[in-house]
Amino acid sequence: MKGKPPLIDALTFAEAKAEHVRLADEIAKHDRAYYQEDAPTISDADYDALRQRYADLESAFPELVTPDSLTQTVGAAPSEKFAKIRHKVPMLSLGNVFSDEEVSEFGARVRRFLGLAKDAPLDVTAEPKIDGLSCSLRYEGGALMQAATRGDGFEGEDVTANVLTVKEIPHRLRGSVPEILEVRGEIYMTHSDFSALNERQAAIGKPLFANPRNAAAGSLRQLDSSITASRPLHFFAYAWGEVSDMPADTQLDMIAAFEAYGLPVNPLTVLCHSAEDLLKFYHGIEDRRASLGYDIDGVVYKVNSLALQERLGFVSRAPRWATAHKFPAQQAVTVLRGIDIQVGRTGALTPVARLDPVTVGGVVVSNATLHNEDEIARKDIRLGDTVIVQRAGDVIPQIVSVVLGKRPKDAEPYEFPQTCPVCGSAAIREIDSKTGTADVVRRCTGRLVCAAQAVEGLKHFVSRNALDIEGLGEKQIEQFFAEGLIKTAADIFRLEERDKHSLQRLKNREGYGETSVRNLFAAIEARRQVPVNRFIYALGIRHVGETNARRLARHFGTFEALRATAQRALEGSEARAEINNIEGIGDVVAESIADFFQEKHNESVLDALLAYVTPLPMEEIVSASPIAGKTVVFTGALERMTRDEAKAQAERLGAKVAASVSKKTDLVVAGPGAGSKLAKAQELGIETIDEETWLIRAAGAGD
Hints:
alpha+beta, single chain, 26 strands, five-stranded antiparallel β-sheet
């Protein structure tokens, strides 16, 4: 600061207001120089003096304090819990590739989907894959209004108060920006900041963070935003959600637009024209990985043209137009001390290796997956073996192989248990009636008497991508189940009422207090209404994961419609055919759904649960065109687009795509060579159109 500023007591309100505005602009300029350009122009002491002067002005003239004031972005009163934010556009995950050959196949797959020649030009961007926490920033009129974590991709946590403390993230964008702009990127922590943070943790006797990603995630998800403000967090913008007016038509130009708005972007992002270019960038960045100053776990490839991205669309929970090329898994050597058998919610017996703790890629590993009994036998894994362990995809620890030269002489082949270690029921490997082969998984047959299956089912029910009941995690479920407080999902919603009449109230238990119990009951209350796809997934029906739950929800709309159809879905029935006909479902899943809803015990459990929980109907895509909500079947050869592209287009417009023609089919799009499906459509009097007519209707629906 140049010169000695006048005493605040001597200032008029007009003078104070003018200085307040000037200081805000000056501080913002220094923030950009430090956090975005890595070129600070003043010392830390001078910067702190500016901030202090700004705060003193507001203390003397409270009228200067507004929601945009710099003093309002830190030190907010701690929240009791995070609110939920529904993403306007889902924040989906990326598919992964691990080899050079898979990178070439990614390009080939994109060209096949689009119907392009093998040697057709295809520009793809490449950028480092930051190992941090995904975050979405919503700007309205250029002002930061809301920030959310990825969550399950459809609903995240409201971390607005905490994100406002991240100095690198602008509260207001520069220049002419879209009225609505959702910017997505990664919150991360640098290596030097991480080391300094752990030094501070050690100095005050607090636990150390395992790695920068955990430190960043833990810092952002603090209920007290002043703690977040004290942590050195950074941000890279690389994607977007809802945008009212797209400022560019390529991936690379969108990143350039973000930078022009004042958002931090990764300068290492490049445009590539071939698989060879992509691999050259990948191996180059892999060599530089240790010197970047922040953690990355691979490289992300994205088709550059936004028009092609729109055509490619999504499959399951990932875009077809992007993929992550992960770095090779990191390995270490340790000793296998034991094998525990865990029983899952479907009765599956899963072997887990207990290891001498070893650091793999910066994380201490003491457990590893052994997959199944065939995997143990194939690798001949025995107790006492020295083993090579790796974090597959830098995430899940697994045993790669045994160091046979170090095997103890008395080591015996491992015998997988034939009975459930929890309830003692027989554990069998089911035989596929069509192929005659045994399932790779051994399962407990004591479905109704096995406590492990009940407990794991409850853990799944409250898990993040199911009902997501905050404060009711695995530890609490195990404790409440053991004490008889929660035996079924319905018991969760009776917990508060029963607690009022209990002599041993929850708030009087060790680890619980008035606030934590109140928060738990509020979190349970907030889940009395849930999206139907989450509810279906939470039930734990075998073979029905998140993707199939959404397919069922989209097709039936309501839980009542699904349940009524599944109850009638006997083998060979029209109801079974309807479920089987849903794109992506198939025979095995349809049979599992029918079995679940036709089981009398499940019916009574469902009735009890539905007395407390209301599954909300699936949100439909609104369209002026009759395509939305209709069931469409594609048959024959399509000449203007590939079959996959046509299906993706129909789903984007809100239509339901079926695999075969039935009475519930609304529209058949028939190309040259259409056979039995076209004949059946004509027999049933279903409207049939050609590809050209379909494209005209689709264009009208997209307007």
